[in-house]
Design goal:
It is built from 10 helices and 11 strands. With 294 residues, the chain is α/β, with parallel strands linked by helices. The strands form 3 sheets. It has a 6-stranded parallel beta sheet with strand order 1-11-8-7-5-6. Strands 3-2-4 form a 3-stranded parallel beta sheet. A two-stranded antiparallel sheet has the order 9-10. The chain is 40% helix and 17% strand. It has 2 domains: 86 residues, Leucine Dehydrogenase, chain A, domain 1 (Rossmann fold); 135 residues, Rossmann fold, CATH 3.40.50. It is globular and about 55 Å long.
Length: 294
Protein backbone atom coordinates (compact mmCIF):
# COMPACT_ATOMS: atom_id res chain seq x y z
CA UNK A 1 0.00 0.00 0.00
CA UNK A 2 1.32 3.40 -1.06
CA UNK A 3 0.25 6.65 0.61
CA UNK A 4 -0.55 9.37 -1.94
CA UNK A 5 1.23 12.09 0.02
CA UNK A 6 -0.40 15.38 -0.96
CA UNK A 7 1.73 17.35 1.47
CA UNK A 8 4.96 16.13 -0.11
CA UNK A 9 3.80 16.57 -3.71
CA UNK A 10 2.29 20.01 -3.04
CA UNK A 11 5.62 21.14 -1.60
CA UNK A 12 7.39 19.88 -4.74
CA UNK A 13 4.95 21.86 -6.90
CA UNK A 14 5.44 25.00 -4.79
CA UNK A 15 9.22 24.62 -5.14
CA UNK A 16 8.81 24.32 -8.93
CA UNK A 17 6.59 27.43 -9.02
CA UNK A 18 9.07 29.34 -6.82
CA UNK A 19 11.82 28.52 -9.35
CA UNK A 20 9.66 29.92 -12.16
CA UNK A 21 8.93 33.07 -10.15
CA UNK A 22 12.66 33.50 -9.52
CA UNK A 23 13.25 33.46 -13.30
CA UNK A 24 10.43 35.98 -13.78
CA UNK A 25 12.04 38.31 -11.22
CA UNK A 26 15.52 37.83 -12.72
CA UNK A 27 14.09 38.81 -16.13
CA UNK A 28 12.56 41.94 -14.59
CA UNK A 29 9.02 40.84 -15.43
CA UNK A 30 5.76 41.19 -13.50
CA UNK A 31 5.31 38.74 -10.60
CA UNK A 32 2.02 36.73 -10.54
CA UNK A 33 -0.65 38.31 -8.34
CA UNK A 34 -3.52 36.36 -6.74
CA UNK A 35 -6.42 38.03 -4.93
CA UNK A 36 -8.98 36.40 -2.66
CA UNK A 37 -12.36 37.88 -1.70
CA UNK A 38 -13.89 36.71 1.56
CA UNK A 39 -17.34 37.82 2.72
CA UNK A 40 -18.15 37.34 6.40
CA UNK A 41 -16.33 35.62 9.25
CA UNK A 42 -16.66 31.89 8.57
CA UNK A 43 -13.81 30.30 10.55
CA UNK A 44 -12.97 27.57 8.04
CA UNK A 45 -13.00 30.06 5.16
CA UNK A 46 -10.71 32.49 7.00
CA UNK A 47 -8.27 29.66 7.78
CA UNK A 48 -8.33 28.49 4.17
CA UNK A 49 -7.80 31.96 2.68
CA UNK A 50 -5.01 32.60 5.20
CA UNK A 51 -3.22 29.46 4.03
CA UNK A 52 -3.55 30.63 0.42
CA UNK A 53 -1.92 33.95 1.32
CA UNK A 54 0.95 32.14 3.08
CA UNK A 55 1.39 29.88 0.05
CA UNK A 56 1.67 32.97 -2.17
CA UNK A 57 4.38 34.36 0.08
CA UNK A 58 6.29 31.09 -0.06
CA UNK A 59 6.46 30.96 -3.87
CA UNK A 60 7.03 34.69 -4.32
CA UNK A 61 3.59 35.69 -5.62
CA UNK A 62 1.96 38.97 -4.71
CA UNK A 63 -1.35 38.46 -2.93
CA UNK A 64 -4.31 40.59 -1.90
CA UNK A 65 -7.00 39.61 0.57
CA UNK A 66 -10.25 41.55 0.20
CA UNK A 67 -12.35 41.20 3.35
CA UNK A 68 -16.00 42.25 3.27
CA UNK A 69 -18.53 42.17 6.10
CA UNK A 70 -21.26 39.58 6.55
CA UNK A 71 -23.85 42.27 5.71
CA UNK A 72 -22.30 43.01 2.29
CA UNK A 73 -25.00 43.26 -0.39
CA UNK A 74 -24.92 41.40 -3.66
CA UNK A 75 -24.47 44.69 -5.55
CA UNK A 76 -21.47 45.66 -3.39
CA UNK A 77 -19.81 42.31 -4.02
CA UNK A 78 -20.49 42.48 -7.76
CA UNK A 79 -18.96 45.98 -7.83
CA UNK A 80 -15.82 44.65 -6.10
CA UNK A 81 -15.60 41.78 -8.61
CA UNK A 82 -15.86 44.24 -11.50
CA UNK A 83 -13.05 46.26 -9.94
CA UNK A 84 -10.84 43.14 -9.76
CA UNK A 85 -11.78 42.15 -13.33
CA UNK A 86 -10.49 45.51 -14.57
CA UNK A 87 -7.34 45.62 -12.43
CA UNK A 88 -4.48 44.69 -14.79
CA UNK A 89 -2.15 44.14 -11.85
CA UNK A 90 -4.20 41.12 -10.66
CA UNK A 91 -3.75 37.94 -12.73
CA UNK A 92 -6.36 35.82 -11.01
CA UNK A 93 -8.76 35.92 -8.10
CA UNK A 94 -11.14 33.72 -6.18
CA UNK A 95 -14.35 34.43 -4.28
CA UNK A 96 -14.30 32.21 -1.20
CA UNK A 97 -17.42 30.10 -0.74
CA UNK A 98 -19.85 29.81 0.98
CA UNK A 99 -21.35 33.29 0.64
CA UNK A 100 -23.97 34.80 2.99
CA UNK A 101 -27.62 33.98 2.14
CA UNK A 102 -28.41 37.45 0.74
CA UNK A 103 -25.97 36.85 -2.14
CA UNK A 104 -26.70 34.68 -5.19
CA UNK A 105 -23.60 32.49 -5.55
CA UNK A 106 -24.29 31.63 -9.20
CA UNK A 107 -24.59 35.31 -10.15
CA UNK A 108 -21.28 36.04 -8.41
CA UNK A 109 -19.41 33.20 -10.14
CA UNK A 110 -20.78 34.34 -13.51
CA UNK A 111 -19.47 37.86 -12.86
CA UNK A 112 -15.84 36.74 -12.57
CA UNK A 113 -13.80 37.32 -15.75
CA UNK A 114 -13.18 33.78 -17.14
CA UNK A 115 -9.54 34.76 -17.82
CA UNK A 116 -9.07 35.50 -14.10
CA UNK A 117 -11.19 32.60 -12.82
CA UNK A 118 -8.35 30.58 -11.27
CA UNK A 119 -10.91 28.50 -9.33
CA UNK A 120 -12.20 27.18 -12.66
CA UNK A 121 -15.85 27.63 -11.66
CA UNK A 122 -17.06 29.90 -14.49
CA UNK A 123 -19.35 28.05 -16.97
CA UNK A 124 -17.05 29.06 -19.84
CA UNK A 125 -14.06 27.37 -18.18
CA UNK A 126 -16.14 24.37 -17.06
CA UNK A 127 -17.43 23.96 -20.61
CA UNK A 128 -13.93 24.15 -22.08
CA UNK A 129 -12.77 21.52 -19.59
CA UNK A 130 -15.65 19.23 -20.66
CA UNK A 131 -14.61 19.69 -24.31
CA UNK A 132 -10.92 18.92 -23.60
CA UNK A 133 -9.92 22.51 -24.44
CA UNK A 134 -7.13 24.40 -22.69
CA UNK A 135 -8.57 26.13 -19.62
CA UNK A 136 -8.43 26.44 -15.83
CA UNK A 137 -9.30 23.11 -14.20
CA UNK A 138 -10.93 23.53 -10.75
CA UNK A 139 -8.13 23.37 -8.17
CA UNK A 140 -9.19 20.24 -6.25
CA UNK A 141 -9.76 18.05 -9.36
CA UNK A 142 -6.52 19.48 -10.84
CA UNK A 143 -4.72 18.44 -7.65
CA UNK A 144 -6.17 14.92 -7.81
CA UNK A 145 -4.99 14.53 -11.42
CA UNK A 146 -1.51 15.71 -10.42
CA UNK A 147 -1.33 13.22 -7.53
CA UNK A 148 -2.40 10.35 -9.80
CA UNK A 149 0.11 11.39 -12.46
CA UNK A 150 3.11 11.88 -10.17
CA UNK A 151 2.56 8.53 -8.44
CA UNK A 152 2.05 6.78 -11.79
CA UNK A 153 -1.35 5.32 -10.87
CA UNK A 154 -2.71 3.45 -13.89
CA UNK A 155 -6.10 4.81 -15.04
CA UNK A 156 -6.50 3.54 -18.61
CA UNK A 157 -9.26 0.95 -18.93
CA UNK A 158 -9.94 1.08 -15.19
CA UNK A 159 -13.38 1.43 -13.59
CA UNK A 160 -13.51 4.72 -11.69
CA UNK A 161 -16.38 5.28 -9.26
CA UNK A 162 -16.98 8.88 -8.19
CA UNK A 163 -19.02 9.34 -5.02
CA UNK A 164 -20.67 12.78 -5.07
CA UNK A 165 -21.84 15.01 -7.91
CA UNK A 166 -20.92 18.54 -6.79
CA UNK A 167 -19.84 21.09 -9.39
CA UNK A 168 -16.61 21.62 -7.44
CA UNK A 169 -15.30 18.02 -7.31
CA UNK A 170 -17.64 15.15 -8.24
CA UNK A 171 -18.86 16.30 -11.64
CA UNK A 172 -15.52 17.64 -12.93
CA UNK A 173 -13.73 14.46 -11.77
CA UNK A 174 -16.24 12.29 -13.63
CA UNK A 175 -15.49 14.25 -16.83
CA UNK A 176 -11.71 14.32 -16.36
CA UNK A 177 -11.33 10.60 -15.56
CA UNK A 178 -13.16 9.73 -18.78
CA UNK A 179 -11.18 12.05 -21.07
CA UNK A 180 -8.74 10.83 -23.73
CA UNK A 181 -5.56 11.51 -21.77
CA UNK A 182 -3.56 10.45 -18.74
CA UNK A 183 -4.91 10.55 -16.11
CA UNK A 184 -8.14 9.46 -17.76
CA UNK A 185 -9.32 6.88 -20.28
CA UNK A 186 -11.22 5.09 -17.52
CA UNK A 187 -14.86 3.99 -17.47
CA UNK A 188 -16.64 6.26 -15.00
CA UNK A 189 -19.65 5.64 -12.78
CA UNK A 190 -21.06 8.57 -10.80
CA UNK A 191 -22.85 7.73 -7.54
CA UNK A 192 -24.59 10.05 -5.10
CA UNK A 193 -27.11 10.27 -2.26
CA UNK A 194 -29.91 8.77 -4.39
CA UNK A 195 -27.87 5.82 -5.70
CA UNK A 196 -29.29 2.44 -4.69
CA UNK A 197 -27.02 -0.43 -3.60
CA UNK A 198 -23.94 1.77 -3.73
CA UNK A 199 -21.84 -0.99 -2.13
CA UNK A 200 -22.37 -3.22 -5.18
CA UNK A 201 -20.96 -0.47 -7.39
CA UNK A 202 -18.00 0.48 -5.18
CA UNK A 203 -16.96 -3.20 -4.89
CA UNK A 204 -16.47 -3.24 -8.68
CA UNK A 205 -14.30 -0.11 -8.67
CA UNK A 206 -10.59 -0.06 -9.47
CA UNK A 207 -10.45 3.61 -8.42
CA UNK A 208 -12.78 5.35 -5.97
CA UNK A 209 -12.91 9.14 -5.67
CA UNK A 210 -15.09 10.06 -2.71
CA UNK A 211 -16.31 13.64 -2.29
CA UNK A 212 -19.39 13.07 -0.16
CA UNK A 213 -18.58 14.84 3.12
CA UNK A 214 -19.85 11.96 5.29
CA UNK A 215 -17.21 10.83 7.83
CA UNK A 216 -16.04 7.21 7.45
CA UNK A 217 -18.75 6.48 4.87
CA UNK A 218 -16.61 4.09 2.80
CA UNK A 219 -15.93 0.88 4.73
CA UNK A 220 -13.53 -1.97 4.02
CA UNK A 221 -16.36 -4.34 3.00
CA UNK A 222 -17.38 -1.83 0.27
CA UNK A 223 -14.10 -2.10 -1.67
CA UNK A 224 -12.11 -4.82 -3.43
CA UNK A 225 -8.44 -5.65 -2.94
CA UNK A 226 -5.86 -3.33 -4.57
CA UNK A 227 -8.35 -0.50 -5.01
CA UNK A 228 -7.06 3.06 -5.44
CA UNK A 229 -8.71 5.46 -2.96
CA UNK A 230 -8.87 9.25 -3.35
CA UNK A 231 -10.57 10.71 -0.26
CA UNK A 232 -11.71 14.30 -0.84
CA UNK A 233 -13.93 14.46 2.27
CA UNK A 234 -12.97 16.89 5.02
CA UNK A 235 -15.31 16.95 8.02
CA UNK A 236 -14.73 18.34 11.51
CA UNK A 237 -15.72 15.66 13.99
CA UNK A 238 -16.01 16.63 17.70
CA UNK A 239 -13.14 15.15 19.72
CA UNK A 240 -12.56 16.32 23.29
CA UNK A 241 -9.16 14.63 23.41
CA UNK A 242 -7.85 17.17 20.87
CA UNK A 243 -6.75 20.67 21.81
CA UNK A 244 -9.05 22.23 19.20
CA UNK A 245 -11.98 20.08 20.32
CA UNK A 246 -12.30 18.36 16.94
CA UNK A 247 -10.42 16.20 14.45
CA UNK A 248 -10.47 16.24 10.67
CA UNK A 249 -11.98 13.08 9.17
CA UNK A 250 -12.40 11.96 5.57
CA UNK A 251 -15.12 9.97 3.81
CA UNK A 252 -13.07 6.78 4.12
CA UNK A 253 -12.51 4.48 7.09
CA UNK A 254 -8.77 4.85 6.54
CA UNK A 255 -7.58 2.37 9.17
CA UNK A 256 -9.44 -0.57 7.63
CA UNK A 257 -9.72 0.42 3.95
CA UNK A 258 -5.97 1.14 3.73
CA UNK A 259 -5.31 -2.56 4.42
CA UNK A 260 -6.97 -3.45 1.10
CA UNK A 261 -5.85 -0.45 -1.01
CA UNK A 262 -2.90 -0.27 -3.41
CA UNK A 263 -2.87 3.56 -3.19
CA UNK A 264 -4.74 5.80 -0.73
CA UNK A 265 -4.81 9.48 0.26
CA UNK A 266 -4.71 10.32 3.97
CA UNK A 267 -6.96 12.95 5.59
CA UNK A 268 -5.53 15.40 6.40
CA UNK A 269 -2.44 15.58 4.19
CA UNK A 270 -3.82 14.12 0.98
CA UNK A 271 -6.00 16.10 -1.43
CA UNK A 272 -6.24 19.24 0.75
CA UNK A 273 -2.67 20.55 0.30
CA UNK A 274 -2.89 19.84 -3.45
CA UNK A 275 -5.82 22.23 -3.85
CA UNK A 276 -3.79 25.24 -2.80
CA UNK A 277 -0.77 24.19 -4.87
CA UNK A 278 -2.91 23.93 -8.01
CA UNK A 279 -4.56 27.28 -7.32
CA UNK A 280 -1.04 28.74 -7.47
CA UNK A 281 -0.39 26.84 -10.71
CA UNK A 282 -3.61 28.24 -12.22
CA UNK A 283 -2.50 31.76 -11.22
CA UNK A 284 0.80 31.22 -13.03
CA UNK A 285 -1.16 30.05 -16.09
CA UNK A 286 -3.40 33.14 -15.82
CA UNK A 287 -0.33 35.41 -15.87
CA UNK A 288 0.97 33.66 -19.01
CA UNK A 289 -2.45 34.03 -20.64
CA UNK A 290 -2.51 37.77 -19.89
CA UNK A 291 0.98 38.20 -21.36
CA UNK A 292 -0.14 36.51 -24.58
CA UNK A 293 -3.20 38.78 -24.79
CA UNK A 294 -1.28 41.98 -24.03
Amino acid sequence: MTILDGKKISNQIKDEIAEEVKKIIDDGEKVPHLAAVIVGNDGASLTYVGSKVRACERVGFESTMVRMSNTTSEVELLDKIEELNEDDNIDGFIVQLPLPPQINTQKVLLAVDPDKDVDGFHPMNFGKMALDMSTFIPATPFGILELIERYGVETQGKHTVVIGRSHIVGRPMSILMGRKAFPGNSTVTVTHSRTKNIEEITRQADIIISALGVPNFLKADMVKDDVVIIDVGITRVPDETRERGYRITGDVDFENVSKKASFITPVPGGVGPMTIAMLLKNTLLARERHLRQA
